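For reproducibility, we list the full input for the adenosine monophosphate complex.
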Amino acid sequence: MKIKKVKDYPKIVIMGPQGSGKGTQAELIAKKLSIPKITTGEIYRENIRRKTKLGAMAARIINKGNLMPNEITNGIMTKELNKPSAGKGYLTDGYPRNIEQAECLEKIAMPNFVIFLGARMPIIIQRISKRRECGSCKAIYHLINRPPKISGICDKCGNILVQREDDMPAAIKRRLQIFRTQTKPLIARYKKMGIFHSYDGEKPIPAVQKQIFRDLKNKGLI
Ligand code: AMP
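The corresponding predicted structure, in tokenized form, follows.
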């Protein structure tokens, strides 16, 4: 009797240093695969915008470039990943960021495909320091690679563009240091699990995306 292999749903983690293009890739992949994209940083920023209690705490921590406590982040992710919308796959962007978070994710819904986007330090610094964000609709621009039509104004909603507090030099330094010391050790863990896929985040977005989709296909996830 021929046994039909049941296709696993894509359970994707995307990781990489700030400025490696992971936000853009995450958006495109989740859209194409029709899976929810869960971005911890965005959840925290949304709380800051809405001026919630969590937002007040997040503002103090995030603006300095530090990480939010694991207990809070894991609690948020547990809730998000248990939603019915995440029942047929998910993509997490910015989570897990350390071993404790990775262990939590594995208990809720074991990932089966990890995307790592790498880029060299000067490129990362250049990309982050020139990043601007619409204070209202959160559209993202880059002063050189993706400038707005009118300087300082959002193309989409006409509001003023700002530099994120945590994109300022001191916070960037701290965020990259945390990435090196806490998040990078996850690479060995995912390599051991055989789910680690590394890509060159300096290459054009469409080229990287093509490679990611080829690998997802080879793994039988799409
Ligand atoms: P990001 O845009 O992903 O760099 O996230 C912005 C900030 O949100 C980070 O610098 C942290 O302060 C906080 N944050 C996002 N994701 C996490 C996480 N998984 N664990 C702890 N803090 C996080």
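Residues 18, 40-41, 44, 61-62, 65-68, 73, 94-95, 97, 101, 166, 175 surround adenosine monophosphate (CB under 6 Å). The radius of gyration is 18 Å. Both points were considered when choosing residues for closer inspection.
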